[in-house]
Q: What sequence folds into this?
């Protein structure tokens, strides 16, 4: 919904939140999560705004909200309502208003250090207690800077200054975050600086309503928080689709010629485009896929990307569509070739007419309202399409993986027999129980996989760690490599053992990169093998249909299961007698 994308109209959001919520709830494809808000100030409007942004991301929250400034008591001493709520995510909304002791000019360095440590330890004890009790994901605000500086500029460098104290306390929070999984910082220090600290710290709202920031700032805080949550649950975008003329460079290459496009350090407008290209190229290291969709002659597009001052080169892109086809059709073709849903893409084009056509005809795609080139980075960055929570080694080589897939497709076209093609790939799989080294990638995969996802369940890293340590589960990951390279961890199966001899498959997912490679059969063979080791007699499989997973509608039929139950909504329950299962993989060499 455009109203919930940056830059948004704050007054409109606040005045129309009920109407917006009603419209968002028409969506029937949510994942549901329980979010506890433990607040050090008033949080009711934060909750309302957060709900809108999460609904827009396909996450339907239910909330527990602590009483005013009872975050410490709820965390340390608990209460029955919070215990029964059993949150998936705990958000601790504290601000510099909750710092009890600040240094004074009379305090020596030792006293100030002890004061700092005591303040930090209070929060560390909260996090430890909450992790022990709920094993939930924790999101903690850092502290925004105070709205005045007693020492002026020296407030930042002198240990007696509040700016210095907050900076040191924030660093302790960051150190904790770097050492603990399932713990994330909601960076309100950055958000408040972007918003404007004088406005953020509007004293009227604190003294009248006990809001730690002015109410018009709340959508910005809630949006930032929502982006962390949507990233945890795999709602990030995955790829750019980029225009060329007046988007990656200034000018129209077909009219101006490659020698006259504006890119590089020679002219100010060229510097703006070079900086934008550098920003985009940095996304490759995050595993974001770059593609071109331009109304241009192909030769002109390549010539522009080979300009001596261009940061982005042809090899930085997986697919380059430079032709005169409608951009909505090109975009759909890119999505199909990459085997990604259209909602995985961010379409960047300076032309509002082209943005509208793509937005109207490509469901789910993001089309940021960029205006002047000097604002491109800010608008895209503030929308946090690619918010990082978990990061795996495979993200670093994502472009390489998709480029290898393109080579596989080219090779496949040379074979008349598909099985012969699969055998020519010389595939080798590693299929085994969860290992610590792969847990982040496993969690990431459970949240990013939509097409080959039979139950559509989502697991945070803490959920995966819990499953790994529970003997009532059979949990398998699958890696696959072939002559073109290593695809990494691309499949996950989680089965819950019940009644001693039944296995119920809670999750079965696979990356779209390895579809139709027989990996699902190799995983099934190993699952049955593990089930036999645990004296499992029967395996139950479940299929819950969504708009995106229709391709696995008949998955269990192909695996030899028997349909036991279905309903009018398309939900299905299957059953397999383990002793009757026959191995089906004959092209992948499997190791453990």
A:
């Amino acid at each position: 919904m455009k109203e919930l994308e940056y830059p948004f109209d704050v007054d409109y959001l606040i005045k129309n939140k009920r109407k917006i919520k009603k419209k968002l709830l028409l969506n029937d494809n949510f994942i549901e999560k329980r979010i506890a808000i433990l607040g050090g100030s008033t949080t009711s409007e934060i909750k309302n705004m957060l709900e809108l942004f999460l609904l827009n991301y396909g996450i339907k929250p239910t909330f527990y909200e602590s009483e005013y400034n009872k975050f410490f008591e709820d965390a340390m001493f608990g209460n029955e309502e919070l215990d029964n709520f059993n949150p998936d995510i705990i958000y601790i909304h504290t601000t510099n208003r909750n710092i009890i002791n600040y240094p004074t000019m009379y305090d020596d360095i030792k006293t100030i250090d002890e004061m700092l440590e005591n303040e930090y330890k209070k929060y560390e004890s909260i996090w430890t207690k909450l992790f022990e009790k709920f094993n939930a994901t924790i999101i903690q605000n850092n502290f925004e800077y105070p709205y005045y500086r007693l020492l002026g500029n020296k407030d930042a460098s002198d240990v007696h200054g509040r700016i210095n104290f907050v900076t040191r306390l924030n660093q302790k929070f960051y150190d904790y975050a770097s050492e603990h999984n399932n713990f994330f910082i909601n960076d309100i220090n950055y958000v408040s600086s972007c918003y404007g600290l004088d406005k953020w710290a509007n004293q009227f709202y604190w003294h009248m309503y006990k809001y730690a920031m002015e109410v018009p700032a709340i959508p910005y805080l809630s949006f930032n928080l929502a982006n962390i949550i949507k990233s945890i649950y795999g709602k990030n975008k995955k790829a750019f689709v980029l225009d060329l003329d007046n988007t990656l460079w200034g000018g129209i290459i077909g009219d101006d010629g490659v020698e006259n496009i504006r890119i590089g350090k020679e002219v100010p407008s060229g510097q703006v485009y070079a900086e934008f290209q550098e920003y985009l190229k940095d996304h490759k290291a995050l595993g974001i896929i770059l593609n071109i969709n331009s109304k241009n002659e192909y030769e002109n597009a390549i010539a522009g990307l080979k300009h001596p001052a261009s940061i982005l080169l042809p090899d930085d892109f997986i697919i380059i569509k430079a032709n005169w086809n409608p951009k909505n059709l090109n975009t759909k073709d890119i999505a199909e070739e990459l085997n990604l849903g259209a909602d995985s893409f961010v379409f960047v084009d300076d032309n509002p007419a082209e943005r509208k056509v793509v937005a109207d005809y490509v469901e789910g795609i993001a089309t940021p309202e960029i205006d002047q080139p000097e604002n491109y980075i800010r608008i895209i960055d503030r929308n946090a399409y690619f918010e990082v929570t978990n990061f795996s080694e495979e993200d670093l080589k994502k472009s390489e993986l998709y480029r290898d897939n393109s080579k596989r497709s080219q090779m496949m076209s040379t074979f008349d027999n598909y099985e012969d093609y699969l055998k020519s790939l010389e595939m080798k799989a590693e299929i085994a129980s969860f290992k610590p080294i792969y847990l982040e990638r496993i969690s990431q995969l459970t949240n990013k996989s939509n097409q080959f996802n039979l139950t559509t369940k989502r697991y945070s890293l803490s959920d995966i760690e819990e499953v790994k340590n529970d003997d009532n589960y059979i949990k398998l990951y699958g890696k696959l490599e072939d002559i073109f390279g290593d695809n990494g961890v691309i499949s996950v199966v989680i089965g819950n053992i019940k009644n001693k001899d039944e296995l119920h498959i809670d999750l079965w997912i696979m990356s779209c990169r390895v579809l139709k490679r027989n990996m699902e059969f190799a995983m099934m063979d190993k699952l049955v093998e593990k089930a036999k080791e645990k004296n499992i007699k029967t395996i139950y499989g479940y299929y819950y249909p969504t708009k995106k997973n229709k391709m696995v509608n008949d998955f269990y039929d192909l695996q030899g299961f028997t349909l036991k139950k279905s309903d009018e909504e398309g939900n299905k329950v299957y059953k397999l007698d383990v002793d009757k299962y026959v191995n089906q993989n004959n092209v992948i060499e499997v190791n453990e």
Remarks:
- The first strand starts at residue 31 and ends at 39.
- The two ends are 46 Å apart (CA to CA).
